[in-house]
Amino acid sequence: MYLQYFNMNEKPFELLPDTQFFYDSDSYQEALNVLLVAIRMGEGFVKVTGEVGTGKTMLCRKLLNSLGENYVTAYIPSPFLTPIQLRMALADEIGVEYHQGHQSDITDFRLIKDIIASLIEYNQQGKQVIVCLDEVQAMNFNTLEELRLLSNIETESNKLLQIVMFGQPELDERLKQKSLRQLKQRISFSYQLKPVAKKNISSYVNHRLHVAGYQGGELFSPWAMAKIHKSSKGVPRKINTLCNKALILAFGKGNTNVSYWHVKQAIADDEDSLPNYYGRYFAISFLSIGILMLSFLVVTQ
């Protein structure tokens, strides 16, 4: 919508976990460093927690992309798995060949035996297997217990499987339960992902703009940046949403910079916290944008 107007190659504030937009400073680079150190030390369990929208999935994908060819990686995004489904997902991710018939035909013993054999083979090749699991706070007790049992697969000198768990703060609360104390004791490294600090908000926004191809001057005013941080509380997903809406408004008004006013109106579009007349105002603004777009296309053709 506004890419050509602002001379960008792609949308800078998409909500997808595209690792080229990874923000490599503040809490995020520190979190990545902790994960890489823990993995290279051969620790069995590592945990990362963070509020909704703080970039846990982005960090997970960045970690997987940062590991070299001496690592075999598995990514399991769904927490709603039974223990046997978890084993099957792990087997699929690390290339274990097993009987593809009905689930009832795959005995627990045979499947875990095939997984162990594959892990031993990778170990003999000098490769370490890393499994990353997302949204772990939503896993049921039996599946969490299965994770603990999988972490028992080891030789006399090292773990054959390293597990990295990503979850919301509720995961920490669950791990306080007595029934999960054995799993909690296995976690050797933990990190709590923090929102973008106020002093780094401009750096974060400008980083994404430059990755998207923007090469002009400061697109967002200092007042706009301050307003974005105050409203979003530094949560990347909220920052991205507000920046995207503010850019649309600036484009719709024919402005070359994003002002405090544009951000204020973008915030007003939040139907959960503001009166309906603001939503109607934003809808009218989008109609104006549509008209401007048509005019812009006619002129450029």
Task: Give an account of the 3D structure.
The protein has two domains: 27-192, Rossmann fold (3-Layer(aba) Sandwich), CATH 3.40.50; 198-300, Helicase, Ruva Protein, domain 3 (Orthogonal Bundle), CATH 1.10.8. It is 49% helix and 10% strand. It is built from twelve helices and five strands. It has a five-stranded parallel beta sheet with strand order 2-3-4-1-5, with helices on both faces. Helix 3 (83-93) runs parallel beside helix 4. The radius of gyration is 23 Å and the shape is elongated.
Task: Return the CATH class of the largest domain.
Answer: Alpha Beta
Tally of helical runs: 12
N to C succession of SSEs: HEHEHHEHEHHEHHHHH
**What is the beta-strand fraction?**
5-15%
- Assign a percent range to the helix content: 40-55%
* Number of separate domains: 2
- What is the correct CATH architecture of the largest domain? 3-Layer(aba) Sandwich
Mean pLDDT: 87
Q: What do we call the CATH homologous superfamily of the largest domain?
A: P-loop containing nucleotide triphosphate hydrolases
Strand order of the largest sheet: 2-3-4-1-5
Q: Globular, elongated, flat, extended or rod-shaped: what is the shape?
A: elongated
Q: Structural class, from helix and strand content?
A: alpha/beta
Counted beta strands: 5
Rg to the nearest angstrom?
Answer: 23 Å
Please give the largest β-sheet.
Answer: 5 strands, parallel
